[in-house]
Amino acid sequence: MTKWVYSFGDGAAEGRADMKNLLGGKGANLAEMASLGLPVPPGLTITTEVCTYYYANGQEYPDTLESEVNQAIAKIEKSVGAKFGDKDNPLLVSVRSGARVSMPGMMDTVLNLGLNDETVEGLAKNSENPRFAWDSYRRFIQMYSDVVLGVDHYHFEELIEILKEEKGIDLDTHLEAEDWKELAQQFKAKTEEELGKPFPQDVREQLWGAIGAVFSSWQIDRAKVYRKLNNIPEDWGTAVNVQAMVFGNMGDTSATGVAFTRDPSTGDNEYYGEYLINAQGEDVVAGIRTPQNLTKAAREAAGATLPSMEESMPEVFGELADVFDKLEHHYKDMQDIEFTVQRGKLWMLQTRAGKRTAKAALKIAVEMAADGLIDEKTAVLRVEPAALDQLLHPTLDPDAPRDVLTRGLPASPGAASGEVVFDADHAEAAAKEGRSVILCRVETSPEDIHGMHAAKGILTARGGMTSHAAVVARGMGRPCVSGAGQLRIDGKAGVMSCAGREVKEGDIITIDGASGEVMIGEVKTLQPELAGDFAKLMEWADSYRKLKVRTNADTPHDTSTAREFGAEGIGLCRTEHMFFEGERIIAVREMILADDLAGRKHALAKLLPMQRGDFIEIFKIMRGLPVTIRLLDPPLHEFLPREEDEFEDVAKAIGASVDHLKRRASELHEFNPMLGHRGCRLGITYPEIYEMQARAIFEAAIVVEEETGETVVPEIMIPLVATRKELGMMRAVVEAAAEEVFAEKNHRVEYMVGTMIELPRAALQAGKIAVEADFFSFGTNDLTQTTIGISRDDAGRFLDEYVKKDIFAQDPFVSIDQEGVGELVEIGAERGRSTKPDLKLGICGEHGGDPASVEFCHRTGLDYVSCSPYRVPIARLAAAQAALKD
Ligand code: PEP
Ligand code: MG
């Protein structure tokens, strides 16, 4: 028979940390902590299988669930010495969700469950604190009504405000027992008015209502958005944790807090966290009161006046520090912890691996390996490749002038500039138009997730380092400044102000998530520092990976950046990209619009020295590393002149009339340029183009070999090949150019000729094509476009919907469609190698920098991946992890 409920408490538990799939992260770790003998309030976990069952069976529970829950509640009652629903000595519980991986702020929590008009009196008597009891009851009514019954919490906030006004009081803390009692009555009446039925007094009804609400919340929109953004499968489900309440709001010897065993922002090995005296549950994360520091050192560093926990509760702090050490040694990872102190007694409410910035992840992994807590392989596996992105982005130039508007908390590192927007929907819309925005909010909530994702940075006026904005931004790798308390944000009016200065929606600001500064205007940024922990971890990663990592680079500048990031060669130099600027584009247009061979040759003669010059620089920067140069593959529409002045420029350069050029351009017009006269089709019809390019490459190689004495082995790549014949003909053009140049210069260089595999036919015919090829490079951008039949240029309009509807788990242009496009890559690789067992294989589509695709390439046995310069470290780490997972 399936067991649906697992108990924990009193130094024992039925579950374990490795049962996360069944118990959810929270439940599994509560069980583990209980087994470790840590002070955990007793409780029960309803498994994720119940959630799955619930959705598979028309929202019904398994038959035996209720009796299992009852038995587990009885155990809690025994442990605590109180009874659920008992009017003299009531047991109160919290009900919380807990999926396999943490989903911050996504799911709902109910506290103080078990209170009703009778049990509240018992609580008042036992706690000898009627104010606390009535405050707890009204909190419960408020939370339960909101989360379970769907009565919005503002109704209740309003009633509190009205009462405070009547009594001439500013602060909630000045309300007394009678006031909370009065409010509890009003709250119940409000709920009844909204729902047409009374607030439930039966504690079992309350419990099942809350359990049902947790399961339902798995399917609310913001949970779905979060899962989508984080690739969490819909069918994982959530567990429900029911746990005896402990109270951090029982007076000045009580407190509640969140802590990390190390600094999650910098990775420094220091306890880090915040707490609030006399507060309950989510008060710390909600950002309603400003939390106090955990340690004295942190308080001093922050210049805060309110005492740290280390100072105000030294004994409990000492106990907490012991728990931190015990947990870190047990889990061998940095932990994120929630705790409560009830009248001087410490209780642990949660532990989990702490979310951290990439910088912290690196530092923690490297230090833990150095301390022998984990080995090097584990360290390499600990850092999420995609998260490196955060480190590889620019920081503010310390010497750049800056006009600081205000300062907040350095909640998530990185610097970003952009237009001010005050609303998540606006942020998303602006980002879709390609604008950079900074989302500025009083505080953020899960409803803002899509806007936070779209923004370049996030700024909030309220909330601490563990506020929603801070936690989510760190997870997403967005720079974030939180709790900029001087800032008055009036989103409705479209303006924020600080110290007499105003910033309007649309104005540019810069935020520095490392210092907490908020600046007016754009501030110059610097490239990241790649030494230290980063270099160390990369060195370890490089020792495990099998795949080589090259870069896609078209300019000397990109090439240098990529080398700094550790690229081991160029996997794709798109020669058409070398022609985008100024004079060059005119010469290219001249070539394209030429009426005949003579006109084309005239234009090509202008392009030759430009190409040669670039190749010389690139070969020099790459110093003997392989360089794959792809011959021209210009989707024509990207290169034809469009505007009047563009026609005029070309007309002037070649002495033709604008009218003539326009006619010529309209002759060249294509209905489907992506499937048009591009790639090797251009070389087949105008071989002189490829001939010029081959000449430029060989001349450059000879110059560099003669100047530096180093060997240069260019890899010349023919694009968009569908048949063996195409490649054979283009190969002949390249070879002829080579022989001509070698004879002229009396200097031979070694070289290779290969092809891109970016059409389904090429993948299928790879066995034959390989006869003419020294290497293959899978062009998975075009291969995706042509396999799925979705235009690279037009997919944006509908692909979102495809992902939302789960037709594709992810955008196939971002992460390779492993079963479709991937199968063609496998076929191409296998057939190519059956002709030439040592055929060199790589990938140069955008997928080369996507961790999941890199893993796929590793499994498929490719020799290298090639990606944009900034993603080279991501690919290096992903390749190492793929190898370690073998
Ligand atoms: C490809 O198609 O994957 C590729 C790398 O070429 P391009 O993106 O230039 O078409
Ligand atoms: Mg292509």
Automatic annotation (TrEMBL):
Enzyme Commission number(s): 2.7.9.1
Any Pfam family: PEP-utilizers
Domain PEP-utilising enzyme mobile: 436-516
Keywords attached to this entry: ATP-binding, Kinase, Magnesium, Metal-binding, Nucleotide-binding, Pyruvate, Transferase
Residues in PEP-utilising enzyme C-terminal domain copies: 531-882
Pyruvate phosphate dikinase AMP/ATP-binding domain mapped to chain residues: 21-58, 65-300, 318-368
Cofactor(s) listed in the protein's UniProt record: Mg(2+)
Reactions catalysed: pyruvate + phosphate + ATP = phosphoenolpyruvate + AMP + diphosphate + H(+)
Gene3D superfamilies hit by this protein: 1.20.80.30, ATP-grasp fold, A domain (3.30.1490.20), ATP-grasp fold, B domain (3.30.470.20), Phosphoenolpyruvate-binding domains (3.20.20.60), Phosphohistidine domain (3.50.30.10), Pyruvate Phosphate Dikinase, domain 2 (1.10.189.10)
InterPro entries hit by this protein: ATP_grasp_subdomain_1, PEP-util_enz_mobile_dom, PEP_util_AS, PEP_util_C, PEP_util_CS, Phosphohistidine_dom_sf, PPDK_AMP/ATP-bd, Pyruvate_phosphate_dikinase
GO molecular function, one term: pyruvate, phosphate dikinase activity
Top enzyme category: transferase
Recorded superkingdom: Bacteria
PANTHER family with a match to the protein in the record: PHOSPHOENOLPYRUVATE DIKINASE-RELATED (PTHR22931), PYRUVATE, PHOSPHATE DIKINASE 1, CHLOROPLASTIC (PTHR22931:SF9)
Function, in words: Catalyzes the reversible phosphorylation of pyruvate and phosphate.
Family: Belongs to the PEP-utilizing enzyme family.
NCBIfam families: PRK05878.1 (NF004531), pyru_phos_dikin (TIGR01828)
Name of this protein: Pyruvate, phosphate dikinase
